[in-house]
Amino acid sequence: MSTKPSIASSAFSRRGFLGFAAAAASVPLLAACGGGSASQGGGGGAAGTIKFWDMPWATPAYNDAAKKIAEGFSGANGGKASYQIIQWNNFYQTFSSAIASKTGPAVSTGGGFQAFQFEQQGQIAYADKVIDKLKANGQFDDFLPGVLDPFKSDKGYVAVPWQLDMRVFWYRKSLFEKAGVGLPTDWPSLLEAGKALKKVGAFGFTTGAGAGNNYGNHSMIMMMVNNGGGVWNKDGELDLMNDRNVEAMEFVLELVSNGIVDPAAVSYTTDNMSAQWKDGKAGYGLFQVNVPQRVGDTSGDLLVADPITGPHGDKATIVFPNNIMMYTNTPSQEASEDFLVYYLGQLKELWKQKLMSALPVFKSITEMPEFADDPNNVKIVKDWQPIAKTFAAQGKTLNANLAALDGGQALNQFSQTILTGKADAKTALQTFQSGLESVLKK
Amino acid sequence: MALITAQSGLSRARRGVAPGGAGGPANRKSKLSAQTSRTFFWLLLPSVVLLVLIHGYPLIHAGVQATHDGSLIQTGNFVGGENFATVLSSPAFWKAAQFTLMFTIVGVFGSWLVGLGLALLLRTKIPAGGTFKVLLLLPWVVPIVVSSTAWNWLVATPDSLIPSLFRNLGLGTPLFLADPNLAAITVMVFKVWVSFPFMMMMISAALASVDTTVYEAASMDGATRWQQFSQITLPLIARSTYISWILMTIFCVNDFPTIYLLTGGGPVSATTSLVVLAYRTVFQDFATGPGVAIAFLMTMTLVVISVLLYRQIRKSSVE
Q: Which of A160, A182, A195, A279 is the most core-located residue (most Cβ within 10 A)?
């Protein structure tokens, strides 16, 4: 009688196994270099159809409405537009592989700095003629102040903004009443309010830098910009070690050491952050537009705070002007331009149906009752939008390098270092500067 | 004397020879006929062609990317081994390699130990064993996005369930994902939790093929429970064990979602593995060449490890 060989061992050959092992082992390689999805025909599907790719900017209802708008386009020569949703996961890879294989869109929304990345690679069609058409139809004058300027490069308009992802301070009114402290107006009063909130079990500088959460990064840059600093100088050169940045980070470290920042914030996802706001643990902090809707507390207790003033009198926040770009690979550049002008003209529908969780770029939309009925929205437009600067601050125009900054490893590690209080401001900034330099050289 | 008898019996048992068995060589391969070889060749050809197409092209493309300074769209200029030199001289790479090594060691042997224990337990007659077995498979079956969300809910904030439990027991409030050391431990424990059902299945299958009369013989020869386990069970499941180790090593080294969904590689790179580093380098820093170079180095290392472990399998087969 002999022991039965296992199925695994009897069916096991050296070559077979090595083949399988090699295939499995090559997964990281394939993952790193593999292409994303690509679909039919470059820039256009059926003859003359403009392919418009859009992101899931809000709930599925948003994409339904955007699709309806896009498919309602009728060009001068009977041209049409098709609509496709591109998921955020690996979106840059999806766009890159589609563009490389000439199966990409003619027009798209996308990442905040994506247009500049593809412009650098010669894939973007400049929007100067679109701007001319907007001037002709009166929409140009409807832009909120300053929103178009960051898109103007030496060669032309790289993209056209359509919504503003603004970072503003929010607060929970009842917690401030409970703590018996006034709203911060400057940095010392922010520190004071944070200490008072801590006594009632809440945090006075709510943020998060966990998996996929960029609010911690944005909080750091916002505090630098709020102190007249920033990642770049006015000439667009890397300038992290300036005194204003050091001062700002020393202040944030003071907030950390005083327990005003949640010690677990470094690992918080956006859902964790939302839960902190909903559960009354967050008293004050930087967040996006529409926080009550996002966290599920529309009781009126969550309100937009006033902008705070830095120690040298600066008052600023950061904004991400999301934009629509056109690609050189299109069935008709004129049709792309017509589509973009048409789409911008229809944007009001999205805010009218209350589908957006960002600010519009057009004054006329901010005046619509569907938008202006919310006092938080009005306050953001009135008090925050005029002082908002982009990630390019103190520089003026956006560029491809910002993509490596926003969400890149250097900034993420810097934010986490500050939030854990593991290094002093100068050391953390120096490491950040070195990390960013090594990436920007590429 | 009894010991000598027991060892003799155990020796026979290890070779898979039950009492009275001849103990001669088993399953010696016979040479395939030319006709059979040709049939095998044509049957295998489509798979081989598909494999070459699916893996060959990306591998070549990755090789090009790793030796150029371009982007995902443009190849860029040829830079030779510069990307590899950049990666190998980067402290971030070595830190990630160190974490990957720890993650893999804990992931492989942690899940193997838990899987082995449970497989042995399930071999005994326990009430509702079938239900128990199905429940134990859940960590492997549940999508990783769901389980990572559940783990985040359990440990992320000071008021989450497990930190609250620690606090109520007077053990302080551990920040499982915010403290770099605890985050590394949490991710490894999560990996073991996700992976042990796979090990349990592999070992259960191997144990099922072991003839129980071998144990009866060893028992009659006076072997203790430990001797039976260490000198019969472990040697007889050695091949399956080595195979599962190889597969789990590959799973651990390549594991992106377990780490990325729970910690994103943080805090401060404490849980950044090589695959996470490769991803972040390519898609967040947009440094395609160095990112693909990291992936290349990982692949080469995995192939070497796989070959070494495979040799171990052959060695165990000969024994």
A: A160
CB pairs under 8 A between A and B: 234
B215 by Cβ neighbours in 10 Å (0-12 / 13-18 / 19+) ranks as middle
Whether A420 sits inside 8 A of B159 (CB atoms) is no
Residue to substitute from B59, B67, B72, B215, interface A, most A β-carbons within 10 A: B72
Does the structure show a pLDDT above 50 at A40?
no
On chain A, the residues whose CB falls within 8 A of the CB of B267 are 209, 266-267, 416, 419-420
The pLDDT value recorded for residue B118 is 94
Mention every residue, 6+ apart, whose C-beta is less than 8 A from residue A251. A187, A191, A223, A227
Query: Phi first, then psi: what are they for B272, rounded to 5°?
Result: -85, 115
User: Is the distance from CB of B240 to CB of A9 less than 8 angstroms?
Assistant: yes
Q: What is the pLDDT of residue A441?
A: 57
Residue spans of the domains in chain B: they are: 93-318
Task: Name the CATH superfamily housing domain B93-318.
Answer: MetI-like (1.10.3720.10)
Quote the ipTM score: 0.80
CA-angle at A424, arms to A282 and A214, nearest 5°: 40
Return the higher-pLDDT residue of B162 and B10: B162
Question: What residues of chain B lie within 8 A of the CB of A272, using their CB?
Answer: 152, 156-157
All residues at 6 or more sequence positions from A119 whose CB lies less than 8 Å from its CB, including other chains? A153, A155, A158, A400
Lowest mean pLDDT among A32-46, A242-256, A260-274, B286-300: A32-46
- Average pLDDT estimate for A118-135: 95
Q: Residue A350: which pLDDT band, with cuts at 50, 70 and 90?
A: very high
Asked if B270 reaches chain A (Cβ–Cβ under 8 Å), the answer is no
The three-state DSSP-derived secondary structure of chain A is: CECCCCHHHHCCCHHHHHHHHHHHHCHHHHHHHCCCCCCCCCECCCCCCEEEEECCCCCHHHHHHHHHHHHCCCCCCCCCEEEEECCCCCHHHHHHHHHHCCCCECEECCCCCHHHHHHHCCCEECCHHHHHHHHHHCCHHHECCCCCHHHECCCCECCEEEEEEECEEEEEHHHHHHHCCCCCCEHHHHHHHHHHHHHCCCECCECCCCCCCCHHHHHHHHHHHCCCCCCECCCCCECCCCHHHHHHHHHHHHHHHCCCCCCCHHHCCHHHHHHHHHCCCECEEEECCCHHHHHCCCCCCEEECCCCECCCCCCCEEEEEEEEEEECCCCCHHHHHHHHHHHHHHCHHHHHCCCCCCEECEHHHHCCHHHHCCHHHHHHHHHHHHHEECCCCCCCCCCCHHHHHCCCHHHHHHHHHHHHCCCCHHHHHHHHHHHHHHHHCC
pLDDT of residue A442: 47
- Domains contained in chain A, CATH given: 50-164+320-389 (3.40.190.10), 168-287+408-440 (3.40.190.10)
User: How far does the CA of residue B180 sit from the closest CA of chain A (Å)?
Assistant: 9
For the segment A220-277, what is each residue's pLDDT rounded down to a tens digit? 999 999 999 999 999 989 999 999 999 999 999 999 999 999 999 999 999 999 999 9
State both tokens at A325: 């770009």
Q: Which residues of B touch A213 (CB under 8 A)?
A: 264
Lowest-confidence segment of A31-35, A221-225, A295-299, B234-238 by average pLDDT: A31-35
Give tens-digit pLDDT for A273-326.
999 999 999 999 999 999 999 999 989 999 999 999 999 999 999 999 999 999
Residue pair B183/B270 in contact by the 8 Å Cβ criterion: yes
Cβ contacts of B73 on chain A, cutoff 8 Å: 96, 99-100, 118, 121, 123
Inform me whether the C-beta atom of residue B293 falls under 8 Å from chain A C-beta atoms: no
Asked if pLDDT for residue A30 goes beyond 90, the answer is no
